Amino acid sequence: MLDHVELTVADLSKARAFYDKALAPVGVAVVVTHYSGLSLGYGSEGLPHFWITQGPPLTGFLHIAFRAKDRASVDAFYREAIAAGGRDNGPSGPRPQYHPNYYAAFVFDADGHNVEAVCRAPA
């Protein structure tokens, strides 16, 4: 399995404001800062698994999903992500076409990346 993922963002301050709010409901926060503050590692328990770095934004499609402990956390992710400037790409709800218990929400961040929170636990 993957250990960590890194993506570049056009405006680190704007991206941080978005990800700080959007990822808090799923228990993810900045745990490491590198390169004079130009790279932020998000994770939990001191271990970063998602990095954002100031640089030329990626082109093409990027989709990243964060595991949520429950459906309420997915709902909170969606609310916080939209409040932080994310654009709707699918509100919270069941997605049985993916898995019988799949409950997710999707938003686009400022760079157009498709960011998702998902819970696979039964309702």
- Please summarize the sheet with the most strands: 5 strands, mixed
Helix content: 10-25%
Q: What would you give as the CATH superfamily?
A: 2,3-Dihydroxybiphenyl 1,2-Dioxygenase, domain 1
Number of domains: 1
Q: Provide the succession of SSEs.
A: EHEEEEHEEEE
> Which CATH architecture would you pick?
Roll
Strand content: 35-45%
CATH topology: 2,3-Dihydroxybiphenyl 1,2-Dioxygenase, domain 1
Shape estimate: globular
Strand element count: 9
The radius of gyration computed from the alpha-carbon positions, rounded to a whole number of angstroms, is 14 Å
* Low-confidence regions: none
Alpha-beta classification: alpha+beta
Q: Termini separation (Å)?
A: 26 Å
Kindly report the average pLDDT value.
95
Oligomer: single chain
The level 1 CATH classification is Alpha Beta
Helical element count?
A: 2
Compact summary:
This protein is an alpha+beta fold. It has helices at 12-23, 71-83, and strands at 5-9, 29-34, 39-44, 47-54, 63-67, 87-88, 93-94, 103-108, 114-119.
